[in-house]
Design goal:
25% strand, binds beta-D-glucopyranose, 2 domains, 355 residues, alpha/beta, seven-stranded mixed beta sheet, 28% helix, Rossmann fold, binds zinc ion
Length: 355
């Protein structure tokens, strides 16, 4: 079967290869891949700054945002049948206390693997095999939009974490700021709107297509080229209660922490693979956190419950803003055009590979 693989740490190495079609065991499900979304992590993997092959192998089949159809089930599989549409979770556990409790997204030891990212092949292939416990059934009514479920699960974890840590006090948030308006930022903004919050978004993009999306969602967008992040609270005349940082830029992350208001929560969700250094006023940074009782929390990956909540919210978003989610999928490429697909990510919201 066709698959797309990289040689991790080698720049620009993504290409099509031919591999054996997987054979399932009694507890596994065989999935025919329909769509695979690409994100910043995939870009970094192709650029050679992130990603690890499975032990003893040289290549990694990447891709972790999947949507596929069940075409085979092992004799002991209970929850799935042929024809079901499924999205696979990404992380696989090690033997730490969190992983053993089913909370692999909170792995303590770091010996986890991630399909398509770290030590385990991903979903950019015609078929994949998986244990049923790592699959999530998606409603047929979502159609192709279900390819957005994996990024939605990360957004759900960010929002869930914000609300969980804020149980530290009486808290009635009004305004959230999302930095970064890629697919993850836009889905996060949508979820926050569904929770009844006012949302502002910030990033350096200046794009009429996105402006329409912002206005449909009822979010106020600031162009980071025209306004300094630090001036935004003054500009809107209010303090910011929640910041969710998804630009992929560590310097924006540091400034976003400083811009958050009193008692605010800042959720950092960008995996920044480089080694960028910036200078900040560390006294201001520290004092702002201390005197503002602010909390900053990092999040990665997602729990199964975040995938389940993601389904609820994707359906709710489709009901409230009909056709809007489809506008996030702005390009589709066949597997042969993987390099073209990766380089088109700059000018797109979500690029998907269609098998
Ligand atoms: C994926 C997560 C993963 C993270 C770090 C993200 O792009 O969505 O599932 O944990 O990268 O590898
Ligand atoms: Zn673990």
């Amino acid at each position: 079967m066709k698959a797309i693989a990289v040689v991790p740490k080698k720049k620009g190495s993504a290409r099509m290869i031919d591999v054996d079609t997987p054979v399932i065991t009694a507890t596994q499900v065989l999935v025919k891949v329909k769509l695979v979304g690409l994100d910043g992590t995939d870009k970094e993997i192709n650029e050679g700054s992130y990603g690890e092959p499975p032990e003893g192998e040289k290549m990694l089949i990447f891709g972790h945002e999947s949507l596929g159809e069940v075409v085979g089930v092992g004799a002991e599989v209970k929850a799935f049948k042929r024809g079901d549409m499924v999205v696979a979770t990404v992380r696989r556990p090690d033997d730490c206390i969190n992983c053993q409790a089913g909370e692999y997204d909170m792995c303590l030891k770091g010996d986890y693997t991630e399909r398509g990212i770290k030590g385990r092949h991903g979903f950019l292939s015609e078929y994949y095999a998986e244990e049923e416990r790592f699959l999530v059934k998606v409603p047929q009514s979502l159609g192709d939009l279900a390819v957005l479920l994996e990024p939605a699960s990360v957004a759900e974890k960010a929002v869930r974490t914000a609300f969980t840590v804020q149980k530290r006090m009486k808290w009635e948030p009004e305004i959230a700021m999302v930095t970064g308006t890629g697919s993850l930022g836009l889905i996060t903004a949508m979820i926050l709107r569904l929770r009844g919050l006012e949302v502002i978004s910030v990033d350096a993009s200046d794009d009429a297509y996105k402006d329409e999306i912002f206005s449909e969602l009822g979010i106020v967008h600031f162009n980071a080229k025209k306004i300094n992040l630090h001036d935004i609270p003054h500009e809107i005349g209010r303090q910011i209660d929640i910041v969710i940082e998804e630009t992929g830029s560590s310097s924006v992350a540091m400034h976003a922490i400083m811009v958050a208001g009193t008692n605010a929560v800042v959720v950092l969700a960008s995996v920044t693979g480089g080694d960028k250094h910036i200078e900040i006023c560390s006294d201001c940074f520290n004092q702002g956190l201390v005197l503002g009782n602010k909390t900053v929390v990092g999040i990665v990956n997602a729990h199964r419950r975040d995938f389940e909540q993601g389904i609820v919210d994707l359906l709710a978003a489709e009901a409230r803003w009909e056709g809007l989610l489809a506008k996030l999928i702005t390009a589709r490429y066949p597997p042969e055009k993987i390099q073209e697909a990766l380089s088109s990510m700059r000018e797109n919201i979500k690029v998907v590979i269609e098998f």
